[in-house]
Amino acid sequence: MEDDLVAPYWHLDRPDPASRRTLRRLPALTAPVLRLIWDSGRRPALVILALQLAAGAATASGLLATASVLDDLLAEGAAPERLAAAVPGLALVAAIVALRAAAEAAVELARARLEPALRRAAEERLFAAALGVRLADFDDVDFYDGLHRARDRGLFHLDRAVANTIDLLGAACGVTAAAAGLAVLHPLLVPLLVLSVIPEGWAVLRAARHGYGGMREMVTLNRRVDMLADLATEREPAAEVRACQAQPYVLDEYRQVANVLQKTETRVGLSMARVRAAGRAAGGLAMAGVLAVLGLMLHSGWIALAAAGTAVIAVRVAATALKQLAQAANQLFEQFMYVADYHDFLADAHARRAPSGGTAAPRSPERLTLHGVGFTYPGSSHPALHDIDLTIHAGQTIALVGENGSGKTTLARLLAGLYHPSTGALRWDGLDTSDLDPASLADRVVLVPQHPLRWPHDARTNVRMGRHDRPDPHDHALRESAALAAADDVVAELPNGWRTLLSKQFRGGHELSAGQWQRLAVARGLFRDGPLLIWDEPTAPLDAKAEYAVYETLRKIAGERTVVLITHRLTSVRHADRIVLLHRGRVAEQGTHEELLALHGRYAELYALQTGKTASR
User: Fold this and answer.
1) pLDDT top residue among 312 and 210
2) Strand 367-375 vs strand 423-428: parallel, antiparallel, or unpaired?
3) Integer Cα distance of 336 and 149 in angstroms
4) Cβ–Cβ < 8 Å for 390, 415
5) Nearest residue to 564 via CA among 548, 550, 578, 584
6) Which domains does the chain have, with CATH numbers?
7) pLDDT of 515-558, one tens digit each?
């Protein structure tokens, strides 16, 4: 079972090139992060920079002031005289310490303004990029995985990367200040301090590569754990899980996936811990060497006792700052690997962005023509539709029927402009839809999908979402659409009417049945009110009364609009102007109900199975 859960062998056995590329890409990755900071929080970012520099300057000044104090305290003379001479220096050191504390507090205040603004800007860019691509891109596995890496990991680590950049800046200022103090005391101390950083720097980069490589191994495992977590903890699947007595199965599946995930996490964690331990041990030895050299310099008379004491303080300050610097750099390097996923997705989404502009779609097309239309989903080698030839005239009601998987929904999405043909052409009044402005094309289409979206808003918003910018100050169109869809009864039963929140995920929310949701979806489609209506199994979850009301509405609007109806219930399409039967992605039969029964073909066979009636009867 475990073999089915781990990544393919061709991914595990070779070094991950992404982590190697990330080091080379660090400058390129840093630039857009800095631009995002500049665009979303320029003022607090500048304040933080100024305060960090001020804190660093305070550290350097404090070290030099400490050296002066030690000179006074270690000078010849009586103790009271030496202490009196050191009082001004001590007061200066105290003032510098207070100044640095105030600067650090002010940095936290500025961070409280910067980080939420940055988070909001990063989310907005991601959501805008995701909303700007075509529907077909969501069927592309690489795009979809990249989107979820950017959303689930990239956004979080981008937020943390900014925080660690601020920490890194502060630590760097501290190291620089300590180095400056050491340089004043004796220039030889500075290169020794730099050499002490190299072991931990190596460990930082190495451990980060191990961590990112492990993440890429575990991304599929984590997704499966999330799916099983939903089955175990979410309200919607709870009833069926219990009805099927599937609780032991779900728990067993979790244990198998979690076992592999635990082993992978342990292996990656141990490898990172070993690298970090080696780096810290080597760094400790290097720091001991710095202190030993300082002792030799004091013994040889190269440095005064007061300066040596200050140097010890400076080394300890530098060591603390270096530790903070190493931690921030370690986390920042890891986070930039995830930030790379965020920026890669934005670039990919930008390249895939649906084009804008073009010829405006006809307001009320007189004729829709499909000639040799085929469609293949991204990543698939088998076309979902083959050589579709079909003409739909304005005011007609066209029914698409066929068995599951015959291509009905795919064809409906092509007609709606959500997909573009892989082969052949779809034309509105002779205009190829690929040359039409996508926004104007979408504006002419009403789509009621088989599984409508359940917006977590109130009932009014759920219907108005069909055309949210439609003027309807007194809700006349809203109420008329609800009445035509038999959704007014649903709203009348809600505790707060149109203002009732339709989501049990929030306090005070109300739950609807599948049929009630479908009625609201039909009302949403009617409220949208376009010349081309596409109804994909609109009455599947409805009771007989509601289904009758919906089909009565369809008959009322027939002739005013072009209707494409998809359904498995052949008794519901008897009055359609033309019935198109699809089989394995091809048009197998088409004609009126009577004409298709007279053919004694596949339609007649399906009709007989559903009704028990044959064409002769």
Assistant:
1) 210
2) antiparallel
3) 13
4) no
5) 578
6) 2-40+121-352 (1.20.1560.10), 356-444+531-542+560-612 (3.40.50.300), 453-529 (3.40.50.300)
7) 888 889 999 999 998 899 998 887 777 777 777 777 777 777 76
Q: Residue 431's pLDDT is what?
A: 93
Of 196, 158, 462, the residue nearest 322 (C-alpha):
196
Q: Where are the alpha helices (DSSP H) in 416-559?
A: 438-443, 459-464, 476-484, 488-492, 514-528, 544-557
What letter would DSSP give residue 65? Answer: H
For residue 532, the cross-strand partners are 445, 562
How far apart CA 26 and CA 36 sit, in angstroms, is: 16
Query: Distance between CA 368 and CA 429 in Å, rounded?
Result: 6
Three-state secondary-structure class, residue 486 = coil
User: Which uninterrupted H or E stretch holds 372?
Assistant: strand 367-375
pTM over 0.85: no
| Inter-residue contact 318 to 179 (CB < 8 Å) | yes
What residues are paired with 53 via a beta bridge? Answer: none
Amino acid at 381: S
Phi-psi region of 395 (alpha: psi -120 to 50; beta: other; left: phi over 0): left
Contacting residues for 341 by C-beta, under 8 A, at least 6 apart: 146, 149, 150, 153, 154
SS3 570: helix
Backbone torsion region of residue 448, taken as left when φ is above 0, otherwise alpha when ψ lies between -120 and 50, otherwise beta: beta
Q: Which of 5-9, 174-178, 325-329, 491-495 has the highest mean pLDDT?
A: 491-495
Decide: 45 and 115 in contact? Cβ < 8 Å: no
Q: 355 near 438, Cβ under 8 Å?
A: yes
Rounded Cα distance, 103 and 583, in Å:
73
Distance CA 490, CA 13 (A): 58
Tokens of 497: 């009417």
Burial 67-100 (b: 16+ CB within 10 A, else e): bbbbbbbeeeeeeeeeeebbeebbebbeebeebb
pLDDT per position as a tens digit, 232-290: 887 778 877 877 788 888 898 889 888 988 988 898 889 888 988 888 888 788 878 77
Could you tell me how many residues make up the chain? 617
CB atoms within 10 A of CB 55: 22
CA distance 114 to 420: 42
Secondary structure of 384-402 as H, E, C letters: CEEEEEEEEECCCEEEEEC
Three-state SS annotation for 403-454: CCCCCHHHHHHHHCCCCCCCEEEEEECCEEHHHECHHHHHHCEEEECCCCCC
**Residue position matching structure tokens 């072009």:** 562
> Element (H or E) spanning 568, and its range?
none
**pLDDT tens for residues 542-601?**
777 777 777 777 777 767 789 999 988 888 888 889 999 999 999 999 999 999 999 999
Joined together, the tokens standing for residue 255 give 């244990």
Residue 47 to residue 55: CA distance in whole angstroms? 12
Per-residue pLDDT band for 15 (boundaries 50, 70, 90) equals very low
pLDDT tens per residue across span 222-234: 878 888 888 888 7
Whether 108 and 329 have beta carbons less than 8 Å apart is answered as no
- Please check the confidence at residue 332 and state whether its pLDDT lies above 80: no
